[in-house]
């Protein structure tokens, strides 16, 4: 009996079904491995086709990027030099393209791409001013200020620059 595997994937932003047949790619995504094993525990040795699509709640472009690079991108610590140039296609993306790749890789448990995306995001954030980092993280930027209330010894954000207490 021929061996092989077919998994249908459906994405949050597309009605199109993507059929994944590359067993080496599937093996690198534990979420998909568990789904296939549930259907057929001997999926590596027999032909296995999952009839229903698996919903991947991330953009199609992000997941296709993962599928396209999962066999070639290694963990950052596996290179003699940890530099963004080790990942030319991913390095060319901006922070807002890398974020859904990181999130989708985390969901799929694609550890190499998860680490690559995290590494590149960290490298790109290193170069930005604090205000831009806060914006990317979805946080409010609070400039450096004296948060120590000398009247009662509490540390708290200042509301108007005064150090009066409302306790």
Number of domains: 1
Q: For this structure, what is the CATH homologous superfamily?
A: Potassium Channel Kv1.1, Chain A
Helix amount: 40-55%
**N-to-C order of helices and strands:** EEHHEEHHHHH
Counted beta strands: 4
Distinct helical segment count: 7
- What's the alpha carbon Rg, rounded to whole Å? 23 Å
Which CATH top level class fits?
Alpha Beta
Q: Estimate the strand proportion.
A: 5-15%
Give a structural overview.
By secondary structure, the chain is α/β, with parallel strands linked by helices. It has a single domain, classed as Potassium Channel Kv1.1, Chain A (2-Layer Sandwich). It has helices at residues 23-27, 30-39, 60-69, 88-91, 95-108, 111-126, 130-137, and strands at 4-11, 17-20, 47-49, 54-56. β1 (4-11) and β2 form a beta hairpin. The longest helix is centred in the C-terminal third of the chain and has 16 residues, at 111-126.
């Amino acid at each position: 009996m021929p061996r092989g595997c077919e998994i249908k994937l459906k994405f949050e932003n597309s009605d199109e079904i993507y059929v994944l047949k590359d067993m080496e790619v599937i093996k690198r995504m534990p979420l998909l491995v568990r789904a296939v094993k549930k259907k057929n525990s001997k999926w590596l040795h027999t032909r296995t086709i999952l009839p229903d699509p698996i919903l991947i709640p991330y953009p199609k472009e992000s997941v296709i990027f993962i599928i396209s690079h999962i066999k070639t991108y290694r963990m950052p610590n596996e290179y003699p030099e940890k530099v963004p140039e080790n990942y030319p296609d991913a390095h060319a993306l901006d922070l807002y393209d890398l974020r859904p790749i990181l999130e989708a890789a985390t969901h799929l448990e694609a550890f190499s791409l998860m680490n690559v995306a995290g590494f590149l995001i960290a490298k790109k954030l290193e170069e930005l001013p604090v205000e831009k980092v806060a914006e990317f993280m979805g946080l409010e930027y609070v400039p450096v200020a004296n948060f120590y209330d000398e009247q009662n010894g509490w540390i708290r954000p200042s509301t108007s620059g005064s150090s009066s207490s409302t306790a």
